[in-house]
Amino acid sequence: MAAALGRDGFDHRLDDCSAAGFERRTAGDRDWLRRFTDFDPGTLTSEQATDRELVIAQLGRRQSLAGWEEWRRSPEGYLETGITELFLLAMRSEAELTDAAVARLQGIGAVLDEAEKNLDPPLASRLVVDRGLAGCVANIGFAREEVAGLATDPGNRRRLRAAGEVGARAYEKFARFLSDLAPRCTGSFALGEERYDDVLRRGELLDTDVRALRQQGWDEYHRVAGQLAEVTSRITGRPRDWAAAVRELQLVHPPSIDDMRSEYERVCLEARRFITERDLVTNPPDEHCSVMPAPVAVRATLAVACYIAPPMFKPSRNGHFFVPYPVDADDEDEVRGLLESNAPYSMATTAVHEAYPGHHWHLMTMKGAREIRRVFGSAYFIEGWALYAEGMMRDAGFFTPEQELGQLEARLFRAARIVVDTSLHTGEMSFDEAVGFMHEKALLPLPTARSEVARYCAWPTQASAYLTGAMAIERARDAWMAGGGSLKGFHDSLAGSGAMPVGLAVRSIGLPGSALRHGPEASPPRRTARTGWPVRFGRRSQHDGGDPDGGHGMTDAEEFCHHLDQAQEVTPSSNGCEDCLREGGNWVHLRLCMLCGHVGCCDSSPGHHATGHFDRTSHPLIQSFEPGEEWWWCYVDEFAFEVEGVPSFEHT
User: Is the pTM of this model over 0.85?
Assistant: First the structure.
């Protein structure tokens, strides 16, 4: 995890996958959960209290799944070395990356030896083990034939080839073990209703359960099916079965997989241009999304497009959108299935989901979020945001009528996922029934349907994340707009808050026009108090009563803020957010620390740097640094006020 986040010094290490290591981490989660739960939130600022809730939700989810002991059930978590990502993200010199890759390849054998000790036939499902076996076989080929090609220097290639052979032999040994293990596995992949409900409530903070979620999936499936029929009639000029129209569109595809990748790249650039020209979001500076073939090591287990972001704690904003490629390029059925499921009518939706303004834009925007929010996140937010982006872009007019059909089909697919995932994990649908459902109801080609359902079996609750999160974001968007906010403001604020459980993220940004929602936001405060301070800082004097605005008398700010005597004569440190300027970020509004002059961005900005400055320094007072605004904010007392006679500051 540390290497993936961009923390130095861990690139050469693989996880401790011994039974003792898993048990130690579970005990640590339990202890940290107790400590965070027992901590008095009344001593925290609103932002810190939100961070606490995020950590409790994350640890609560882990505890919900602790008794499931996935490490005894599935080989999948033992297989990945992360070497491809190391080279793709290129955060080190090639020589350093080669050193790390060699260490991982030489160490994978020890990890797989622990897997052989841990996997338990009475707990493990044969279906999940067979899926892991397919991934293991793919890794043999990657280690032996592909890994050396990640380097350009001949010496580094030789080292990778030698280490790759060591890794390939370790994978071959493990594949033999899994082949022997699979027929003896008698466990179930079904998570169970109680655990599923616990994940929804403790981990995602959702007020629902697995059965209500399944009904939501069915309801949305039928609603979207009606929309599909309407769009189909609009395209053809007559009532027609939408499924037949989609099947015809699936047959119109590029001639090759490489041509398919090129078309994805073109559509991504078109989507980026659209969100910029329509002013739907603030684009992070220096971001770039590369559209590439899926890495060989994941082609057997992932038959759909995916995205990998650069590490959160590194400045790079270069992400990678991976297009699905066949395991066997000579397998005509596999190639045809991929081309049909990635035909042009659906490409625009996938490009929006994975790149602009889906995963890539969101994750590049949240690189400016508070640190803990870059570490912990919710799949229900991350995938919900990407699915929300699809519908938002349709509403904004990005898609052609045929592409609208693709977007609606994708939403119907996510509704079908909820029905299948909840049914699989409550034991009410078999694997074969689920494959048939996805083939018939979501129109997936059979190879894709089998791969999809195997993924749901191996990753319980994840398939429900997309539509559940998207619908929650849509409700929040509607409330924001009803409060007078802009669509761009909603997108920038919510995506910039991180990837918390959706309800928690929505509470953290509040509603537009409320500066008191959790600190120094973009708008001025709704309530103010005025004191009779002289210009000279550090001295308070009592005013003589009487509200110049004709109210019921003035309220001394010091009755609510007990830190005014800490204010100093300050000089603004810069004409913009100094942290954003250093990191290449962007801001919405600026705030000035009244103890040291630090200029930081507001909490509606992706970086939250004014609040971050308070967290680091405990300097409690800021003043708006915006033209025409004179209000102050005390972080500790969470009080907004104005100070008469005190010079105001503004950027130019």
Answer: no
